[in-house]
Amino acid sequence: MLISLLMATMIVMLHTAVDAPAAEVDFVRDVRPIFQKHCYSCHGETKQKSGLRLDVKSEAFKGGDAYGPSLVAGQADESPVIELVSSDDDNSRMPPEGHPLSTEEILTLRTWVDAGAVWPDGVDLAQLEDRLNHWSLKPIRSPNVPRLSDDDWSRGALDCFIFASLQSHGLAPAPTADVVSWLRRVTLDLTGLPPNPQETTDFVKESRKGESAYVEVVDRLLESPRYGERWGQHWLDVVRYADTHGFEVNTERPNAWPYRDYVIDAFNHDTAYNQFIKQQIVGDAMGADAATGFLVTASVLLPGQIGKDAPSMRLARQDSLDEIVNNISQTFLGLSVGCARCHDHKFDPISAKDYYAMQAFVAGVEYADREIQSPEAEAAKAEAERLQERVSQIDQRLASFVPLARPVSTDDADAEVTSVKQNVPVASKRSSILATINTDRFTPVRTTRLRFTVLATNRLEPCIDELEVFNKAGQNIALASLGTVATTSGDKIVANRHEPRFIHDGKYGNSRSWMSSGVGEGWVELEFETEQEIDRVVWGRDRQGKFNDRLATEYRIEAFVGDAWKLLADSTDREPRTDESSKAPSIWIAGLTPEEAGQASGLLKEKAELEAKIKAAGNGQKVFAGRFRKPDEIHLLRRGDPEQPAEPVVPAVLSAIGELSLPEATVEQTRRQTLADWIACPDNPLTARVMANRIWQWHFGVGLVETANDFGRNGVEPSHPELLDWLAQELIRSDWSIKRMHRLIVLSSTYRQSTQHNADAEMIDADVKLLWRFPSRRLEAEVIRDGMLVASGQLNMRMGGPGFDLFNKRGGLSGFTPVESFAGDGLRRMVYAHKVRRERDAVFGAFDCPDAGQSTPRRVESTTPIQALNLFNSRFTIEQSEAFASRVKDEVGEDVIAQIQQAYEIALNRKPSAEESSDAEPVVRTHGLPTLCRVLFNSNEFLFLP
After folding, report:
1. Where is the signal peptide, in residue numbers (predicted)?
2. Structural domain includes residue 465
3. What stretches of 63-118 show up as alpha helix (H) in DSSP?
4. CB 95 within 8 A of CB 39
5. Taking the complete model, does pTM exceed 0.90, yes or no?
6. Dihedrals φ, ψ of 182, to 5°?
7. Are 420 and 496 found together in one domain?
8. 636: in domain
9. 468-511, pLDDT tens digit by residue?
10. How many CA atoms lie within 13 A of 236 on its CB side?
11. How would residue 591 be classed by pLDDT, with cut points 50, 70 and 90?
């Protein structure tokens, strides 16, 4: 009885609990404490694993990288957060460490979500930082130039900013550098080569005239072609230029160098920076074809290096597009947009959608070579057309030496008359059938239709790369472009390789040929627009000579005359085909009179020479500058995975600094043009700032923004923000002239300071960011090598073209044995070296020469024992020291003291001190002048900017 009563009571209580309304879950009272206890350590203010943040309302509902929305109001079963905290799998349950949520806590969260996930505004314990409130994303300001009453040091506005900053920190500028130090500094800085002794002597005299002497030197240096070689190298570092592809195989890019030459030429001609930007993004529309090599400078996996399955190809395509977006954003905008490939940027206001919208601008770019379109290329094509006319004339003349065909149906009398006309014995036969080209000549006949029938082949289905029919005027009237229509017995089609339309498209080779659907048989019929008088048919299996199978060994050529087909030629009167016949010329000299044989031989030789020239012109200079096609459809990818596409996106600029977007149907070139115009717009807050900072950095070693490729929140704020904006505006005001920026900087008092040390100043500003002196730095690897060649008199000044080899091979995975001894082109400036990605030069690579694996906005300066060892003991140093010594002896003779003085003047632009001369004399007398030359090459004075 008691048990029954208890059971009844429990049933009543259970029904009461089920029927009673659930208590309302309050976010602040009930939900937030659960998040605080279990979630904030990994998904709070200081850390957001998987991109998920649960301490701020907007971020919590947005979700993380792996899923969509993490909390779906009203649907606990569809909310990933609920699924993860409820999981029975220890490997996937959240939190991964510590105690899991209790049953009551999970029930509270589920109830809250099912009830609508009410999260009141204004209750968050943390606030999101306004990522748009960042200095680099704000419009460029017009700062007031500081004018201090006690400033008699500044030469212009640039100096005023520096002087004011120094004073505010209790610092003063260093004394002005002596004239020789300034000359050596500015010459190395602008050209990468030291001044010669005569230039030094002249400037010392001219400097007495004052400022005009300095201006003349700067103008001379900026007009030198050496300037573009020096400053082009800076740019190539940023865009990671190399002559190989990188990655596992690292194969050669034999046509990458025209982009390098374009960069050097652009700097030499002071191409306006906004135009420089546009040319590198859409130069194919601006007459600067090689410039778009910028888009594809990065490493890339080639088709043969990736899996052939669709997912692997989609991933490789994403990787290649990612490199283009990274190159554009880092180089021109100073932003790491690529960080948003898998999720919204962790620091900057760049969403994943922004990233893929930028990708859509370049979604039609392929890593590939293409022919350069230039005035020179057009002239070469015009010359090829002129030469082709002569080839046609030669073919017409040679045709008269080809024996007339004598098909079996021709009566003996006609054959005898024909043979007498040609002085050919009746019994002789025409040359055997060739895979490359065959000519069937016959008595002229008027017709509108011609049929070529294959009766047998040497193997498989017959294949013809081009069927040509000539009228008496020597014109190929079979071409589809002239209205001739082709029909066939049946086709074996391989798209873009074997199609019926290729039988008369005017292009030769197996990749543009017709193939019959029948083994050993088939026919092609050509119908002309108007009646023609024809006398010759020319055909071949493969004019390029790569294939000789599928060759018609028995055939008939017929014309429709009157109301019936008339046989014009066939294979019955041709010599049997042998292996040797495949090497025979299309015209046999045998059977011709001595006079005709001589004429034919001369014409054949001339034709071969002309065709070689035509081929060279047709194979114009190519450049690895991308091919452009219909853009891919771009989708937002979850976690950057091509196998998880979300909604499609259209081309659009970064939402933090613009609102420009394009319709999905926008054609490929217009997409890039729009992107280039937006980047190069004076209103873009980043473009001018980024380039002004790069120019400053390349002069002083460190930019006003130390992180030249990152103007985002992870970058370093500018040391002189007002000066940076003033320089950016000055760049725009000067019509984007980079050379004008050089003049402003190198003629300033800031640049003219000495490197004199000040212990008190160092206590305040050890890194010399405030520029209380000129910050000396070691010269780059290229400048050191080039300077040694200048001193030795061995420098080859030839510009442009394919690079010289630093290694015994041009591409591959390993085995790069360095070249040790150089001559000829190997003595050109190092910017012209064939740059193998991921392989540093054996000698000068130790001097922090980048390997082009990543963008190098600023070269680090390391100090290692290997640098001294390389620069003292390498074969290159020994050879250049010997050449340097020979040059000195040629100039001053055998007097040891004179030799020492001349060596110092050439290497260091000064005479040796009495002490230096005294120390050097016994070395030269005992060990020879080359030893002193090696010492000078290893001196800090030679290796550092004064």
Report:
1. 1-22
2. yes
3. 80-86, 103-114
4. yes
5. no
6. -65, -45
7. yes
8. yes
9. 999 988 889 999 999 999 999 999 988 878 999 999 998 899 98
10. 33
11. low
